[in-house]
Amino acid sequence: MEKGGLLPVLDSSIQKIRSVSGGSSDVLINRFVTGGIHCALLCCEGMVSASVITELIFEPITDIPQQKDSHGLFHYINEELLLSTDRPEVGDYDTLFQLMNSGFAVLLAEGMTTGLAFGVQGYNTRGVQEPLGEGNIMGAHEGFTETVRTNMSQIRRRIKSPELVMELSKKGDKSSTDICLCYMKDRVPKALMERIRRSLDRVELEAVLTTGYLRPFVENGSFELFDSTGTTERPDVLCSKLIEGRVALLVDGVPYAIVIPRLFCESFQTLDDYAYKPYYATFIRWLKYGAFLIAVLLPSFYVAIVMYHPELLNSTLFMLLVDSEKKAPLSIVTEAFFVLIMYEVIREAGVRLPKPVGGAVSIISGLIIGDAAVNSGLVSTPLLTMTALSVLGGLVVPELNPQVTVLRFAFLISGGALGLFGISLLACAVLVNICATEDYGFPYMAPLSPFRKSGMGDTAVRSGIKKLQSRGFTVEEYHE
Amino acid sequence: MNRISKFQFTALLLITDLFSLCCCFGGISLGTLWGILAGTAVQYLAAMCFAVQGGALKKWAQVFFLVYAVFSGGALFVSLWRTRSAVYIPYEASHGIWGSLMTAGLIALVCLYASSTGIKSVTRAAVIAAVMALLSLSVDLVSALFNAEWSNVSLPEKRGLLGEILRGFGLSGSLGSMAVWLDSVKGDKSKALTAYFAAKAAAVTAVIVTVLPVVGGIMELTEFPVITAAQLSQPFEAQRIDSLFLVVFSVLAIFSVTLQVMTGAYLFGELLPRFQRWRSFTVIALVIGAAFIINGRELLTVRACAAAAALLIAPVGAKKSAAIGSG
Q1: Which of A88-97, A438-447, B151-160 has the lowest mean pLDDT?
Q2: Model-level pTM?
Q3: Which residues of A touch B240 (CB under 8 A)?
Q4: DSSP code of A66?
């Protein structure tokens, strides 16, 4: 769209607006005369609240006394009327459309090359609800919504400190999506903020529709299995991250926030950990570490041990496995591969289908297919048990689900081909990859490697809150 | 150059020494322990001279350490092939020379990937690998103690102390890498060296003192005493756990070779700055080539002489550090 001021002739200006918008039906143009000046109030249908615009804009504006010219009218509105708290000035058509499409009402007057915009947003949004993906028992039950300003208010409600900074900007040439960069200015190093801003400056997308569009720009470009940035849909979790000196990115239209940087150990921490007694929280944390290893390695270890290293089993277990595996028509690797693929198909179907049908899919797959597969002898019971345990283990750490899924298959293949030797080779490659994951100088494996003793209090165990309070931790401690 | 901590430095070097010890060929006795400890003490003193001298290496010294890294890497591959009769690697066991080649190829692939990520990530991973390996080894060896016959500790010694010192030097393939990477250690270099040599002495002592009472009775018959000790250590009555040693063994092998490849690739980059893209690949090809040349031979004397030369060349070939130069 061409740059430059608004046309002074109201008719020409309206004609221009109609031509740029292509006569779009949702662009509403209301012409009226107030204070003796011809004016037009523009807004986008469905983006503004009809009652707010009537009460706060139309009623006061139509009561304006006679003015000598348009400048006088705008001066009167600016000085005498408090129509809305958010009142930017419009200098060009680009801004006019941006504001109008964001729920502002724009007032144009005959002879003026600028317009007045009033924030009267009133579009329908989903209310604050309990997050679906991050379950919590003892903590708050509020999650982010799709509206960035609501999300900003949820954070502000929890951190009332003036050190909390929220910088709004727009990304996406076509979508003009609101992006909000949140940080505690006394906790985040200036250099890190500069680097994140520079990364975001590289965004030249036409639309930003989900957090996944922005994450590659703020992550290290090299091949990383694990994400060095995290996401959360919980304002309380995000606030804890901000206080630890991390940076958050809120994207309008997405009920998730991006957290920079993210550490591996954080995938095993939940807000509930801090609500329980330390001994129980520590137990739960180790349970999650174990579940992660089971999720990734159990099927491959089963296959490797049964195929190549049966001496690792005691004789009773060995005979039990031999007995059930000899009835199965497929090789153990094929069998395991088949069961895991079936699980992934069922899971994907359950996620994509409408909820009532999704439940039916689970019943059909779990009861009918699973039972039939075992009864027909297609799959052995021990293998099915191992796979189910592995899948359950993966559900304990939902954030790492993509990695767990892929690694489970990779380890299964390497274990099936080369036994424990293959598993060891792949484990080394994965270990190096995880250790190479780093974002803005924050190693993903910290505080494990590079080792930081101070970080162990909330990684290997969960120390008492009093002890953690005295620590005054910020993520800067892990910077290399 | 990236900076690494003294613990990362220690872990990376210790892994190579542990792997060499696992692949140690022929009978061992208490004399072996004294020999290796004496050798370690000599190495420590020489390394401290290098630490005091400080600074990066001169060009000719870099050429020497590049050759040394390729030779040590080749020797590690040969050790890996030699132990295949004792350590069961599924595919390799049934496919002879092609199996060995495939094992080498797979290890090379992992090493190639690891070295491409840089020293920082490899040292971070090495710390975790070293801790896991030491834990697993200690489980293996502690369970071995239940099968121990302590009278076996005083076995007759076959080699003299000098021979055992030579053996200790021969099993120290990480000395070249030590000289190359010492400059990148954060903080006090002499503390890093002290940590490394102390850890090495402790680990070697723990392993040999456990191996002697377990394998002692059949020392004459066994080729690889450390592997045999691990195989004899069975904490459970109804099942064997020696396959788990394979996991530790593989992890140690990978990080040992990766260290040599990374050292070689780094020196290649220093010597030929324009040669950037295929450095790791070239070094690993050279390492496998060297393994084929060495194949079947232990070359303990040559390895010992090379290690001794590395210790002598390191201080002589070091550029004077800024502090010393100005002082």
Answers
A1: B151-160
A2: 0.88
A3: 311-312
A4: P
